Predict the 3D structure of the following.
Amino acid sequence: MSSAILTSTHDRLPALKLVQSSRTAWRLANLLLLLLVASIFAMIFVPWQQSARGTGKVVAFVPQERQQTVTSPVKGIA
């Protein structure tokens, strides 16, 4: 039934047939959409690995997270 509707629409509006996209353009658009969705899906599930190097010092801003030395009053087994 939909092809009959399209045929009658094309008969009434001949300019519509002139502005339709080609089959190649539709295939290319579908391929690009598929690649975009696959890329987003891959970026969600592929683990991120940062490869930037740098030098510096690791600083804990919260005092409770800073490294502390603890001396024990009792000697342990060495």
